[in-house]
Amino acid sequence: MTHERGAVVKGPDLFADAAYRPYVCLSDDSHPFSDEEALYAAVTTTERAEAIQLTDDDFTAGGLPRESYVNPWTVVSIRHADITDMEGQLVGTATEKIAQAAAGYLGVE
């Protein structure tokens, strides 16, 4: 199952020993393998100055049970088959803010 840009999903925790980690989908169907995988930014409960906080107002549907932050410098490619659940959907402005921040870490202005 594919998820649209801005979807907040549960995927494999690639950074710790947790059962899963939330991620924000940043790619769309222009990704060369969009039928198989997508690009996601990691979500954490650790507050960092550079992280982007997610608030209830950032969601059009669903949400996260704890105060959460997106690390836009932590972008990973995850296969759709490895996504276990959907947590919610972000508004376009929140998704764009995360994507722009991620692009900045890649040298795109």
Question: What features would you describe in this structure?
Answer:
The protein has one helix at residues 92-105; strands at 7-11, 21-25, 37-44, 52-54, 59-62, 68-79, 85-90. By secondary structure, it is mostly beta strands. It has a seven-stranded antiparallel β-sheet with strand order 4-6-3-2-1-7-5. The N and C termini lie far apart (32 Å). The mean pLDDT is 94.
| Helix/strand order | EEEEEEEH
Question: What helical percentage do the residues reach?
Answer: 10-25%
- Per the principal axes of the C-alpha atoms, what is the gross shape? globular
Derived from helix and strand composition plus strand pairing, the structural class reads mainly beta
Q: Pick out the low-confidence regions.
A: none
Strand content: 35-45%
Summarize the structure.
This protein is mostly beta strands. It has one helix spanning 92-105; strands at 7-11, 21-25, 37-44, 52-54, 59-62, 68-79, 85-90. The model has no long low-confidence stretch (mean pLDDT 94).
Present the secondary structure layout.
Blueprint: E1 7-11, E2 21-25, E3 37-44, E4 52-54, E5 59-62, E6 68-79, E7 85-90, H1 92-105
Antiparallel strand pairs: 1-2, 1-7, 2-3, 3-6, 4-6, 5-7
